[in-house]
Amino acid sequence: MDPSSIMKTSEQGAGPDIITVDSREVYANRWMTVREDKILRRDGSPGLYGYVDKPDFVMILPFDRGLVHLVQQFRYPIKSRQWEFPQGSWEEKPDADPGELARGELQEETGLIAGSLIRIGTIYPLYGTVTQRCHVFFATDLTPGDNKLEHEEQDLVRATVSVDELQRMILDGDLQDAGTIAAFGLARLRKLL
To answer: Which CDD domains match (predicted)?
Structure first.
């Protein structure tokens, strides 16, 4: 079946797929809000849905002279160090321009200043449980500068690898960050790498 016909069928269907009957905040801190919603499905059956509201974030694929820049840091929820592209959000400015945020995060984590920054896509890394979107950028014409790590990022390690080495890291399981793998795929599909 053609995906466009599915959308048309759904749009012409008998109302929304799910109706939110009630929504309550279960927990909140400066980084996220956990919500629990009572819902009604299209067939009228009730349900309960828990999810996390988080501000959008950016991910930057820094590419210069045939090399890709990575960072590695300790990710507490999985208790391990992980390689990934520079990424982040500004909790104090949740409505910040994604391009401005991307430039800031790139310099903060790597010290690199992008002469060229293009948006190559938007992804939902975990839309079954988190509302957060990731705006993916491709950065080139990189100039070294001073990084401005936040206190929580003091353990951050930087590395520069070839595109072939990055692909090997992904295939061997040395790089497991879903957003980084998706960003790499977007760049490849757009023939930027």
So the answer is: NUDIX_ADPRase_Ndx2
Segment 82-98 shows an average pLDDT of 89
Domain positions in the chain are 3-53, 57-189
CA-to-CA distance for 65 and 155, rounded, in angstroms? Answer: 27
Give all strands of the β-sheet with 18-28 in edge-to-edge order: 18-28, 33-41, 46-53
Nearest to 20 by CA among 38, 44, 7: 38
Given a contact cutoff of 8 angstroms between Cβ atoms, the answer to whether 120 and 187 are in contact is: yes
* Geometric angle at alpha carbon 142, from 158 and 65, rounded to 5°: 85
**What's domain 57-189's architecture?**
Alpha-Beta Complex (3.90)
Q: What is the mean pLDDT of residues 104-125?
A: 96
Give 56-80 as a DSSP string: -EEEEEEEETTEEEEEEEEEGGGTE
Backbone phi and psi for residue 30, each to the nearest 5 degrees, phi listed first: -70, -15
